[in-house]
Amino acid sequence: AEMTVSASQSEDKPTCIIVMGMAGSGKTTFVKRLCSYLSEKENKSYNINLDPAVIQSPFPAHIDIRDSVKYKQVMKKYQLGPNGAILTSLNLFATQFDQVIGLIEKKQGDFKHIVIDTPGQIEAFSMSASGQVITESLACSFPTVIVYVIDTVRAENPNTFLSNMLYALSIMYKTKLPLVCAFNKTDILSHEFALTWMKDFEEFEDALNSDKSYLSTLSRSMSLVLQEFYENLNSCGVSAMTGIGFDSLLESVQKGAKEYAEIF
Ligand code: GTP
């Protein structure tokens, strides 16, 4: 679909923040913190839950996939396992997503941000056709930015860092939207090392040298692609637990929204 929000139109539209992150990244805690941060800083955000299987949503959702699609029933009716049922639920919901856009547009004067929480199984959304349909519908109607949450503590392992970066890169290429990397859990470990690795590939190579596995050979050959990716990447360090870094996260999101306006 064509992206149709022009720069002048996008100025008074709320910015849509789609939050993704691997299981254990702290995405749920992050989304909760982001919503409470926004409601203190400005007015409340408009929140959408797209995780059909979540038992307790981290925020009071204005729109909740669970209200229209019953995950457990989908599992039974179509004889599916947990992941298949998440995918099918998303497919069912994607077919009515134009109505969701209509609902947001009616209320859009009342808030500055739309926060979208995606399924805990990241690939169910990021790599699926329905995830793509939903992302494109949002991006056609609002300036849209992806926030990719990373567990900084785990990313201290260079191979885990690389996997995260490749995943973020594939999401960016697939959606063609501005992406912000939020290095989470900086209350435990500063993300300074990650910034160094992104700035200076030799530093990253040194870290990898302790590991002679196949993956480190691969990552060396990926270096050129990654360097270009890093140059255009917005990143910041946050702690979803303590709330550190959310001012700079919001700045990165605003920068992303500006990029969106320049692209589309
Ligand atoms: P989903 O996949 O969305 O279900 O969630 P998740 O596993 O990505 O994140 P969740 O918020 O459940 O967090 C996973 C663990 O990390 C929990 O034990 C959190 O308490 C912890 N955690 C999340 N954010 C932070 C943080 O900023 N600092 C610290 N120290 N721990 C965190």
Fold topology:
Elements: H1 7-10, E1 15-21, H2 27-41, E2 46-49, E3 63-64, H3 65-68, H4 71-77, H5 82-94, H6 97-107, E4 113-117, H7 122-126, H8 129-141, E5 144-151, H9 152-155, H10 158-175, E6 179-184, H11 192-199, H12 201-209, H13 214-221, H14 223-231, E7 234-237, H15 246-263
Helix pairs in contact: 4-5, 5-8, 6-8, 11-12
The total of helices stands at: 15
> Which residues sit in consecutive blocks of at least 5 with pLDDT less than 50?
none
From the N-terminal CA to the C-terminal CA, the straight-line distance is: 12 Å
The gyration radius over C-alpha positions equals: 18 Å
Estimate percent helicity: 55-70%
Q: What is the 3D shape?
A: globular
Give the biggest beta sheet. Answer: 7 strands, parallel
- Ligand identities: guanosine-5'-triphosphate
Task: Find the structural class using helix and strand composition.
Answer: alpha/beta
What is the helix/strand order?
HEHEEHHHHEHHEHHEHHHHEH
Q: Tell me the β content.
A: 5-15%
Strand order of the largest sheet: 3-2-4-1-5-6-7
Instruction: Give the overall average pLDDT.
Output: 92
- Work out the number of β strands: 7
